[in-house]
Request: fold
Amino acid sequence: MQQSIPRSHLFTRLAVATALLTLGLIVFGAVVRVTDSGLGCGNHWPLCNGTIIPPLDNLTAWIEWLHRLFAVLIGLLGIGTLVVAIRAYRKSDRVVLGVTVIAAVLFMVQSGLGALVVVLDLPPTMVTFHLGTAMLLLGSLLVAAVFSAYKPNEQRKSDSVTMLTYITAALSLVIILTGALVRGSGATLACIDWPLCNGDIFPFSQGQLAIVHMTHRLAVLAFGISLLVLVWFVLRDRKDQQTRILTFGALVAYLAQAAVGALFVLSGAAPIWGAAHVGLAAATWATLVILSAIEWLNSRIVTSIETTWNPQSKTLT
Reply:
């Protein structure tokens, strides 16, 4: 029979809290970008223009400095989460511990990328990697939290819904990365209308920035189609309310994100819409990561039972 896995409520609460703070950090990072505060502290790191605390009259420096302070808070909470994971799961559930260790490594990588972004004057590729790593950190924390708390209530094999969930989650990360590349390369207003790009669907004659911008929009469209297909399959093949609610939640977050993205362009890149756009994209990604973790756990239980069945003796080993 399947052995029960010890659970740590403290770990789950810490992982969720750290994930929520990471989501807040991602939104704060969007505020840094849309207010052009990325170099508010100059090329200095960890200091801010050579000082520990920036001048009170330098708003961009304070925005960047508070972003760094936010990251330090997440680091401290993350250390606590890792310590609890080691104590609670090193002998009982190496999967939870392993995912938590991955989250700790991702935090260190993300912090290092943040420093490089500042020192190297915000190169677009590094900005994209920085945001992508932050999203992976958010995802790993959520996976650890789900793995530590979720009890599968429906055993099923991996099927089309499972695979579509994984694919759609991956596509949501792709659109986030292409969006970061749009902002980092200065292509935000390369297309000033919506949904077309200055009247064209494929703006190959409008230059590289327009192509970068429209590539992001096409990726968003592909993701939306994938999400709609996932919703249809979930309604057909899943009866549990939890899966349905998460799937519809991802769809709502996606629609809101797409609408806000349009407003961001049509408003001439108003900062409030830019920050909301990134926040909703992160919320969509987070919801699909949770759904993916649940799908994996449900299919893992079935796989575990099947691999312990001996067809010759007809007994469980």
Notes: The chain has two domains: 7-149, 152-317. The beta strands are 309-310, 315-316. The two ends are 9 Å apart (CA to CA). Confidence is low (pLDDT under 50) at residues 1-5, 303-317.
